[in-house]
Design goal:
Structural class: alpha/beta
Shape: globular
Number of strands: 9
Distance between the termini: 32 Å
Helix content: 40-55%
Radius of gyration: 25 Å
Strand content: 5-15%
Oligomer: single chain
């Protein structure tokens, strides 16, 4: 049984590709970054593009309703605002785009600290220049309890760099305060008041797939909010908006690419008046797939070609789980050719192959991504570091991780660097990096997980468990925290709690062969042999070359009285690892028992 290693993946970022001329319904203006537009409805990949849309329409003093798991309104220093105001006054939207779209940073073309703003703070300059004078941030929570209220207020004080929030109104599930000359209101969807006509409606798709605000972890299984119902509710609460902007923000954001089709569903609703059936059907499929235990519900081919990339992508995921790797990759690559946004899935597959213990195939996926992008990006480099770590090529991991933190000392890349240091055995240096991240971002669940991992490597198991639990409190969907906590609990004989965590890890990462094996062991130790057999069988479909899993399956089968099947599995384990004494003994014992029955 082997525990999970470091996790250095905070997010996987998508690189936006725009082919041909900018999609634009304002002649003479270069509004790059718009994917689709009809009348006053815009679909963008990176949310920062919305700044240019609003300013190109000369909007002033607007009411903004921002539907998002993240507030996208954080401090921008005055010197950057001054540059931005000059560019906006001269209507140089191409210049603004070059200095705000995160793709330029990913391609090593714009130092992140030189960006004027990005998709996480584009609203702040719009408040400061008077574009927005009344701002509603609608969070995914159904209710805002006292702890969440305090957490949100603390976050906003830090985000705006102000000493206190002077609350001008607070009721159940809503509170307001003043920022500059703008009234800011944080509210749940149900508490959103009736908004006057002519407002700006701004929707980030991650609202639908996140359980709460300010998190990186999406929902598995049923969503808290049903997209068609939310659209219907917003139509009554925000009637006749002047402009509607919809973002997926996979690039630099948090939305898993499997849910990208929801953005097209929202666009379809606001341009046609009805939510597309294709989007409804795809949501049923991906919800079934990401539940535990997963349900194989193959998607039907959509009528609207806009949803074909999602169909191909989700079909590929389904086939991958079933072990049909070749066909799965072909589907995922077809999705990319239909819509370049889906290129993120290629890097996702690299991570899947790492989980499956197939570093050569992970390298091949990264090669495919870089070929498609025609360059190395900072996030393909980050994926490459993860593969180097998996195959213990630490010299190359060291060089590339240094390059990344020299380019951008963001938590994402610092986490990678800490991972390399830990694998080099420089645990104290790695711990210093994780503590640096936590000191700046004490809500970073992944940093607590990695700190726990490094402490476990030092033999400080109690402290490691504390940090794993902290990580899961902040980031409930962190698969490796569930796995390592489950691993430790299983070793301590706490099988019920261990099984709960390992099941969560499998639901979050169904391609992780090690997790499936560890879950099988925990179940077998509780004599839950049918479920254990199912885990081992699934793991073998993903990676048939691991002798230990065949041996574990043999033991579970024999313990269930299935002697012929167990003996066959012993033979397979011995083909992969000849002269394995424990398996030879197990097979001989099984043969004796078979004869006695």
């Amino acid at each position: 049984m082997r525990k999970a290693g470091l996790t250095i993946t905070l997010l996987l970022f998508q690189i936006e590709l725009i082919f041909g001329e900018p999609v634009n319904n304002l002649p003479g203006l270069d509004l790059s970054g718009i994917t689709r537009t009809t009348n006053n409805v815009y679909l963008v990949e990176n949310h920062s593009t919305v700044f240019n849309i609003w300013h190109s329409r000369n909007i002033r003093g607007a009411t903004l309703v921002h539907i998002d798991a993240h507030e996208d309104c954080r401090y921008v220093p005055p010197e950057k605002l001054e540059i931005l105001n000059k560019l906006a006054a001269s209507r140089d939207y191409a210049g603004i785009f070059r200095q705000s779209d995160i793709e330029y940073s990913f391609r090593y073309q714009l130092k992140p600290d030189k960006a004027l703003f990005d998709l996480g703070n584009y609203i702040y300059p719009c408040i400061m220049d008077g574009t927005v004078s009344n701002y509603y941030w609608v969070v995914p929570e159904k209710t805002i309890d006292q702890n969440k209220l305090i957490g949100l207020q603390q976050h906003l004080k830090a985000a705006y760099r102000i000493p206190s929030l002077l609350l001008s109104g607070a009721t159940n599930n809503t509170f307001s305060f003043i920022l500059s000359n703008c009234t800011v209101t944080v509210t749940t969807l149900d508490s959103l008041p009736q908004i006057d006509k002519g407002a700006l409606l701004d929707i980030d798709t991650d609202f639908f797939v996140f359980p709460c605000s300010l998190t990186e972890s999406h929902i598995h299984g049923e969503l808290i909010w049903d997209p068609p119902k939310v659209c219907s509710l917003l139509s009554s609460r925000v009637p006749d908006p002047a402009l509607i902007t919809i973002a997926s923000s996979i690039s630099g954001g948090y939305l898993p690419v499997a849910f990208r089709f929801i953005s097209d569903g929202l666009f379809g609703y606001y341009t046609s008046g009805s939510y597309p059936d294709d989007a409804v059907n795809l949501l049923k499929v991906i919800t079934a797939m990401l539940s535990y235990p997963s349900v194989d519900l193959p998607p039907r081919k959509p009528r609207d070609p806009v949803f074909l990339p999602a169909y191909e992508h989700i079909t590929g995921l389904s086939l991958m789980v079933q072990g049909d790797e070749k066909t799965a990759i072909a589907c995922i690559e077809r999705a990319v050719h239909l819509n370049p946004v889906y290129s993120k899935a290629i890097l996702d597959m690299a991570d899947a192959y790492i989980s499956m213990g197939k570093p050569k195939r992970a390298h091949a996926m990264i090669d495919n991504f870089e070929k498609f992008m025609a360059c190395e990006t900072s996030h393909s480099a980050a994926a490459r570091v993860r593969v180097y770590l998996a195959e213990k090529t630490l010299d190359k991991a060291d060089i590339l991780s240094r390059k990344l933190i020299e380019w951008d000392r963001a938590p994402f890349f610092l986490m990678l660097r800490g991972g390399v240091l830990a694998e080099q055995g420089l645990l104290s240096e790695a711990i210093d990096i994780y503590k640096e991240i936590i000191n700046l971002h004490n809500d970073n669940g992944t940093a607590y997980y990695n700190l726990g991992y490094a402490l476990a490597r030092q033999g400080k198991i109690t402290e490691a468990v504390e940090n794993y639990r902290l990580a899961l409190r902040l980031k409930p969907d962190l698969a490796m925290a569930h796995e390592n906590l489950g691993y430790i609990l299983s070793n301590e004989g706490k099988y019920a709690e261990a099984t709960s965590h390992l099941k969560a890890a499998v639901a979050l990462n169904p391609f992780n062969v090690t997790t499936l094996n560890n879950l099988g062991l925990a179940l077998a130790r509780q004599n839950q042999f049918p479920d254990a057999i199912n885990c081992y069988t699934t793991a073998i479909k993903l990676d048939p070359e691991r002798p230990a899993i065949h041996a574990n399956l043999a033991l579970a089968l024999i313990s269930s009285g299935k002697f012929p099947e167990g003996i066959d599995r012993c033979r397979r384990a011995l083909e992969l690892k000849p002269d394995w004494p424990e398996v030879i003994n197990l097979m001989n014992e099984a043969k004796k028992k078979e004869k006695s029955f």
